[in-house]
Amino acid sequence: MKPPIVTTQAGQVQGAWQEKGQIAVFKGIPYAKPPVGDLRWRAPQAADTWTGIKKTNAFSASAWQQGATIHTFFNALMEGQGWGKLRTLSMKAIFKVVPPPKQSEDCLYLNIRTPQLESAAKLPVMVWIHGGDHQDGSAGEPYYDGNALPQKGVVTVTINYRLGLMGYFAHPELTQASDKGVCGNYGTLDQIAALQWIQDNIPAFGGDADNVTIFGESAGGESVAHLLSSPLAKGLFHKAILQSPANSGQMIHLFKPFLDHLSGEEMGVRFAKEYGIQGANQVEQLRKLPAETLQQFVKNNPEIGSFFPAIDGYVLPKSPFETFFDGEQTKVPVLLGSNANEGSILHPLLPAALVEFRFREMPSNQQPKIFFEEYREEADQLFALYPGLEKRITTAESDFLGDGMFGSKVRFYAEQIAKTGQPAYFYFFTRVPPSATQTAGAFHAAELPFVHGTSTPILPLNEQDKQLSAKMIDYWTQFAKTGNPNGNGHLEWERFHPDQARWMQLGTVNLGMTEVEREEKYQLLNERTLRHIQAMKALREEKQEVQM
Fold first, then answer.
1. Considering 300, 322, 344, which residue would you say is the last residue of a domain?
2. Which of 217, 222, 342, 447 is catalytic?
3. Is 444 a catalytic residue?
4. Residues 444, 447, 452, 455: which is the catalytic one?
5. Do 300 and 517 meet the contact criterion of CB atoms below 8 Å apart?
6. Catalytic: 218?
7. Of the four listed, 364, 386, 426, 525, which is most buried by Cβ atoms within 10 Å?
8. Contact 109, 30 (CB under 8 A)
9. Share of the chain above pLDDT 70, in %
């Protein structure tokens, strides 16, 4: 069988057949120019054209990774599976010696899997945005490397985008040089550029440019919220799926400090100073330095902090929280949810109860005072709902962390979406590892192999898991096709209504619509979210008045 060849606007690409010729797979298609040299910290530019046939049979290098906490995360994941000492130690040892993926600034590539190559097929398109706290991750990770979704009649696309320092660095000199008067958010602009490439090229791969679903998990889910909030992304997608959307970039402002965050520009100035860059033309000096050198400096100096998306008035006019609260998000059907134990393996990385937006380091003797300052009249009720939280018991902090960072925020998004009349389908993933001694529960990212139909040594699927995975894949792909997850003979998934809050429980034991049993917790936690929205609104209005 001859390898599949497709003509894109930039040139021809050659992929490979998988699943006995049923799925054509293309890995490493450039969707923008390499953002190197003078293009570092600039908006993505259209990819160069080429002659001949470009072979696209291998994943590209990933974006530069921070990687500071990845081993802590995976160690906690493996320790929580209840595997037994020998297997746990063996898996840790293997993971420790596995070489990291190749990293490069030249990372703006995407990958496509399609069951048909005729433009007349017009298959639904699903575009996956990987997670990793906007600091790590890639489109080529093994959790996404499978054909279960395209086997259901959709074209799947996974994308790389710039991360951390290379993706979200801001500096006053960059703002001054921009014709938009803003800077940063280059990783988000990469995502938008990839969606534009899909609009221009996906028909040649059998996809329908008028039926695109964006979906992602953690920072990828947050990226979906950003794209729903950004006017630059309007018209580039038609449905959205948010899986455990994180909140790392929701309350950072480009020009003004907010809560415990420096402004995006201040972060950049501090980075340059700490590196030893002074005087004029600081960005020019930084652009001349090797990316690896700069990235190593970030790893060696964690106190400098990480670089995240920021509210800039252009790419992100508002925080997604505020955008959704004001009903200004792109009006498309949305499927969204979180996992039952989001905090279980994240707690070792974020050992303070108030990790969200502020107080990342919190001495025990300051806990009660700070907690009451932050949660005000809700504090006593929250202490009662999370027994042991006041004494800083780990399990209580873990539960509070998961609900605060993920569960309550998804509930907030679901309500705001439903208020505009757009369809919202709310889920709650409850599958726990099968071992009787497991402690991870339905941990953060646990749903990934179920959505993508992949089974890896770290996240293996047993037969019961595979049945749940098949149902979830049916729900996800049916939603991508029609905007409604129903239609495959599975249990009916109701639209979300705030006045009768119900969700679809997705687990190997419990499956079906139930009441949101954490409703009281979510409502109390979101009172703080509402206060943050009003504070950010006041900050933005203050900035606008100064400009006038």
1. 322
2. 342
3. yes
4. 444
5. no
6. yes
7. 426
8. yes
9. 95
